[in-house]
Amino acid sequence: MSRLSCALSAAVPCAALLAAQPALGQDATPLQEITVEGAAGVGSGTGGAPGVATNDGYVAKTTRTATKTETPVNEAPVTINTVTQQQLQDRLPQTLADALAYTPGVRVGAYGFDDRFDSFTIRGVDVTYTGVFRDGLRQFNSPSGLFRLEPYGLESISILKGPASSIYGASSSVGIIDLISKRPTDYKFAEIELQGGSWDRKQFNFDLGGPLNEEGTVLFRLTGVGRDANTNLPGVPDDRLFIAPAVTFQPTEDTKLTILSEFMASTLGGSTAYNNTYAPYVLKDGTVTQQPTGAIKEILFNPDYNQFTQQQGRVGYEFEHRFNDAVSVHQNVRWSGLSTNERFGDASGTYVGQVKEEVSAFAADTYLKTQIATGPVGHTILTGVDFGHLNYDSRIGYNFAAAEDPDLPDPTKQKQRLVGVYVQDELKAGPWRLLLSGRHDWMDSTYRVPGAASAKQNEGAFTGRAGLSYVTDFGVTPFVSYGTSFNPNSGTVIDPDGAGPLTGGVAKPTKGEAAEAGVKYAVPGYNANINASVFWLKQRDGIVYTVVDSINRQTQLDFRSRGFEVEATASLANGVNLLASYSYTDTKILKLSPDTVGNQVNSVPKHAFSMWAGYEVKQGAAKGLGLGAGVRYTGSSFGDDYNRAVIKNKPRAFVDAMLSYDFEAIDPKLKGVRAQLNATNLLDKVEQVCTASYCYFNQGRKVIASLRYRW
């Protein structure tokens, strides 16, 4: 249900179409600081940089993602799921999709194994292009140029459920995924790690930080990764070079400036998803022109002409200055850019293709934070303005005569600018918490195809959010919330029920609304949380792809989603860590084509369940030993919006496992030395999955062994 259904398919008309498409309260006094003790990078959510988030093991305590303030997770009247630093270390995810695999309501793996892009849905809505933020700022993308993630460079991941446009601007009706970068620490630490594993994997990681002067007013962090690896597919490497320097200047207690930067170069396969049983074309009447065999796993790409190289970088800063106890100013700024070169061809040698894209983006968010009291009611008020600018060039060409780079045409270009102003008030009166926010956005875009006149678009919208929670003394917090969303879309779409050309009218903005009610429970006396909620959302004019007359075409979809989610997290003193969740997601198409209305959205299972449990032995002969295991269950779903049984996805479950040992248990001189073994898809279960009328296979068993020394 996204551009990826086009990007991952083998159809030449689809690739040509893809290239032509554009990217898309608190009291008057400050909250009491929550301090979490722990070793460097372990347990604390910020690695020594309180104020962004605090976590204790698997349990999130505070986060800025929900409100841009240090709101306790259990008090915010919204659903927030957090992938903490401890979870990242225990599970060793290699991609963003891997990291989100145990998050309730998040669907990963819909396109099988394809490490070129991180694709996922939240509560049935595809947020691959519009839902990923980095340190509170939108991460812009182009059709084939998506910023990739190195999980080793993160402190944590916050998943904010529900519309967030009222404070973040252009985003989805189901919320955002905020990637929290590692930051400089106020204590000295360092670690190095060696990894090896499946498919000739060789990797070296390092992470170090601390004060640069005696006064502690200048802090640094330097994180890096180097990897040389293959995958289960021939001609598909997984090589990477990553470096992320960061510096914090804090001349006074009232002023702080943190500079965050990153460079990453990666080499992957130009085509990875063509390892499929069949690639069916679904006609308007729902007829499948090719039937699945269910037995053949044929590689349909050319391993000798199959390379995807990408270089990406970002640099920005976070600045905050406190004028007094009540008023402070905050500004987050980032420039980012990437360059891609993708080569691919079919196994029969009929053609080769090449796609090159250049992306540059700028984002800035400035807001004033004011804390006041009106009688018994405390207010934390944000008044802000943010700005975003995207510029990208895209070129695609084909060679039907030889397996060499084709001549590329002049680029298709897009420029997009977003400006928004917003206000938010967090009100606190006794046990009551009321959250109110409103925003207006303006967007203008210029889109130009070579040889054609520029297409210009101007859009604007107001969005809002309201939430109410009641914080009890015994840990229970019921809440309700409602919000609206707005995300502009440039480019053109086609009516799937018509017989027009590949391009049609200008795409309408995607708008949505959502309501939620739930309860949060911080278990008294234990470091454990249980959260449950019911939700309803409706999204209009979402950009999707659907197969019409054997061609994957961009169109727009109206649908609604409703369901239920429950999540439990715990990190207990006896060494037990637990992460468990269940989600029920019921989707219904409201507008696409007459023969799909009333159907379920493709590849969105109604039922999903996951559980990860870990145990570290604290005493006795086995002290230092760590064990972990998890299961991820995905229920059945349809492989197309016609809900044809012929490509229905059957239920499936995958098992993961972890084994670790801290050598300090043997000898105190070995403090900081840790060995770890992780297995993903331990039982080597390879299943076919169909999404948007195309079918793929997941990756088999992957084993990673690591040896880490931290001091």
Automatic annotation (TrEMBL):
It comes from Hansschlegelia beijingensis. Residues 73-175 form the TonB-dependent receptor plug domain. One of its GO terms (cellular component) is cell outer membrane. It is found in: Cell outer membrane. Residues 269-682 form the TonB-dependent receptor-like beta-barrel domain. One of its GO terms (molecular function) is siderophore uptake transmembrane transporter activity. This is Iron complex outermembrane receptor protein. InterPro entries: Beta-barrel_TonB (IPR000531), Beta-barrel_TonB_sf (IPR036942), Plug_dom (IPR012910), Plug_dom_sf (IPR037066), TonB-dep_rcpt-like (IPR039426), TonB_sidphr_rcpt (IPR010105). Pfam families: Plug, TonB_dep_Rec_b-barrel. Belongs to the TonB-dependent receptor family. One of its GO terms (biological process) is siderophore transport. The keyword Transmembrane applies. Gene3D superfamilies: TonB-dependent receptor, beta-barrel domain, TonB-dependent receptor, plug domain. It is a multi-pass membrane protein. Keywords: Cell outer membrane, Ion transport, Iron, Iron transport, Membrane, Receptor, Signal, TonB box, Transmembrane, Transmembrane beta strand, Transport.
